[in-house]
Amino acid sequence: MDTATNPWKILHSRPVYENNWIGVTEFDVINPGGGKGIYGKVHFKNIAVGAIALDEAFNTYLVGQYRFPIDQYSWEIPEGGGDPSEDPLASAQRELLEETGLVAGHWEKILTMHLSNSISDEITMLYLARKLEQRTPMPEETEELVIRKLPFEEAYQMVVRGEITDAMSVATIQKVQLMILEGKISK
Amino acid sequence: MDTATNPWKILHSRPVYENNWIGVTEFDVINPGGGKGIYGKVHFKNIAVGAIALDEAFNTYLVGQYRFPIDQYSWEIPEGGGDPSEDPLASAQRELLEETGLVAGHWEKILTMHLSNSISDEITMLYLARKLEQRTPMPEETEELVIRKLPFEEAYQMVVRGEITDAMSVATIQKVQLMILEGKISK
User: Fold this and answer.
1) Taking CA atoms, what residue in A is nearest to B159?
2) What three-state secondary structure class fits B31?
3) Counting Cβ atoms within 10 Å, is residue A2 exposed (0-12), middle (13-18) or buried (19+)?
4) Is the ipTM reported for this complex over the cut 0.90?
5) Torsions phi, psi for B43 (to 5 deg)
6) Cα dist. A63→A105, A137, B49 in Å?
7) For every one of its 187 residues, what pLDDT tens digit does chain B have, with 9 covering 90 and above?
8) Residue A146 pairs with which residues in a beta bridge?
């Protein structure tokens, strides 16, 4: 099986929309089955990053905000976007500091995911932040964030009950719970 | 804290792109901080569904395919999209049958997620399928799929090693691993 070669053939491409965050392109393609069709692809200009902070007592931090695209309030781990020219770890450190005021002495990348690979090239890198020190949050002007410090176990139960639905947050909280159960994280 | 009211004000909206799967709209907005700006939202016409199948010996099934938007080969749980007028469970059952030829006697919804809530309204519903019966796969003409039956533990290790990056698959496989560790799934 050849997994290295793209079986989709591109006949033509048209940029159809662009803003500071995304660009949408429509491609005329021949699909792997040999049929002609179109493919609308959403390109993300930033790399999505997230940071789950865990203190020595296994408390974590969630950020609450109203998410415009889903028209819903959402509780999430601290998240944001970073320019691809920037080290994603540096982006995660900046987002954690901006949103919660935390700096961390220990960082570990625990997940890399493609968030919606049937339509977009959006990639996310997710980090565990430990050895925390509290400074002053400095949220962006566009954001209206609520920060909540809570036991990690409560955050995990929010995932189990379906009260956290953001994919980056769900996968990261599951991953940390697995690391705890597997003895890879200790207090 | 008022979590029910959208703090984003919409001044104007313009549809900028549409195909059979997505619609992109640009909104003139006033953000929660009071500043004027634009927001490009990607609306998904289908609900994303996924089905992780687990037989009595704890084998599962992965689907391999080249994903056009990320220009990469990807191993995933069986996934697809369903019209919002259709029961997402029925969509998941259809996708599992089409891609793997499996029908299942027991279905359980185990996750609901928003995949990329800063840009899109894409929602996914993810199911665990058990009591499996093998019939004949019937993939869509556009798809060139490879099906792999393997021990669930191997699929979980592919997630741990970062060889599975699709967010729906990562979260679903982690969820099943947690359910196994918590004694919620038995052979």
Assistant:
1) A111
2) coil
3) exposed
4) yes
5) -90, 130
6) 21, 12, 27
7) 677 788 999 999 999 999 999 999 999 999 998 999 999 999 999 999 999 999 999 999 999 999 999 999 999 999 999 999 999 999 999 999 999 999 999 999 999 999 999 999 999 999 999 999 999 878 776 667 899 999 999 999 999 999 999 999 999 999 999 999 999 998 8
8) A64
A166/B171 Cβ within 8 A: no
| B7 alpha-carbon distance from chain centroid | 28
The structural domains of chain A, with segments of one domain joined by +, span: 9-44, 47-181
Torsion angle in degrees (nearest 10) through CA of A149, A150, A153, A156: -60
SS3 A29: strand
Search chain A and give the residue with CA nearest B144.
A32
Q: The tokens 């008022």 sit on which residue?
A: B2
Q: Topology of B47-181 in CATH?
A: Nucleoside Triphosphate Pyrophosphohydrolase (3.90.79)
Cα separation of A118 and B45, whole Å? 13
CB contact under 8 A, B67 and A118: yes
pTM beyond cutoff 0.95: yes
Q: Touching check for A41 and chain B: CB below 8 Å? A: yes
| B174: nearest CB among A17, A67, A174 | A174
Count CA atoms within 13 Å of residue B90 on its CB side: 6
Four-residue CA torsion sign, A133, A138, A143, A144: positive
Q: Which member of A33, A64, A115 has the closest CB to residue B116?
A: A115
Residues 72-101 of A with CB under 8 A from B: 72-74, 79, 81
Q: Say if residues A114 and B74 touch (Cβ distance below 8 Å).
A: yes
Query: Residue B167's closest chain A neighbor by CA?
Result: A115
> What's the rounded Cα separation, in Å, for the pair B34 and B32?
5
